[in-house]
Amino acid sequence: MPFPIKGPIWFMGCGNMGGAMLSCWLEAGLDPARVTVIRKSGEAVAMGVTVLTAPPPDGPVPSLVVLAVKPQMLDLVAPALAPMLDPTTLLVSILAGVETEALRRRFPAPRAVLRAMPNTPIAIGRGVVALHGDGLDHAGREHAEALMAPLGTVEWVDESLFDVVTALAGSGPAFLFRFVDALAAAGADAGLDAAQAARLALATVTGAGLLAEGSTESLAALANRVASKGGSTRAGLDILDEPSALKALIRDTIDAAILRNREMAAAAR
Ligand SMILES: NC(=O)C1=CN([C@@H]2O[C@H](COP(=O)(O)OP(=O)(O)OC[C@H]3O[C@@H](n4cnc5c(N)ncnc54)[C@H](OP(=O)(O)O)[C@@H]3O)[C@@H](O)[C@H]2O)C=CC1
Ligand SMILES: O=C(O)[C@@H]1CCC=N1
Q: Which family does the record claim for this protein (predicted)?
């Protein structure tokens, strides 16, 4: 399938996330000659991609700009970038917390603004990308979905819930990595070799995720398949299922992340 957007494509910032998005798109057939990356270090990205430390002063207006700097850098990069855009530019922002209105104030020209919240597994095309569009018609939404499809699962979310989806899916991989580490550490504390425990914990989580993905059964039913009545898994689940245990811990974790997203949103307003 041809890349869904024609014309020049700029990345403002190309670190963990910008870099992963770009790799996915190049793998999906994007011609690197169409891409300009603007990044502080000027470090090379991929063969054929132009890398600059400031927006190109002349040349064609970009059809697509991906904002992929840290939210705190927004006001540093916006003044030089905004005048280079016109109504035909699709502005995509992956900045946590920063709302459409805050983007529009800094980038008044683009007709369409797309907020996207990816997560790090996009690097292998198995991420989650939550989207909220402003100024997109039906065709524009279809283009946005096609643009993000190589990255993984794409879902539209109302902007009022963007901080929540950022906490759940954007931050989610970090929370899960901690869980896997905790599983491994508990195994090691109980006597397993630490490296072996780490391998087993990761393989268990990967296998369980794939099993759940391919199953029509609920997660509760899948857990019950592991836990025989009166058996050892049930004894462990009884600890996790205490009202003040896992659910409360995860709720506090997600709430803390949501709160921080809201603080960043307020700062950008
Ligand atoms: N990490 C994650 O899991 C997720 C992050 N996000 C969002 O993605 C955005 C980027 O995060 P992430 O990729 O992790 O961050 P990184 O620190 O990896 O990347 C930031 C990029 O910004 C560039 N940059 C910094 N200052 C400037 C400047 N003055 N001019 C131009 N470029 C500059 C850096 O350039 P250089 O590389 O040359 O130093 C780098 O390429 C954030 O807004 C974050 O909220 C969203 C979802 C998930
Ligand atoms: O921690 C952050 O700010 C971003 C948001 C989602 C993942 N990383």
A: Belongs to the pyrroline-5-carboxylate reductase family.
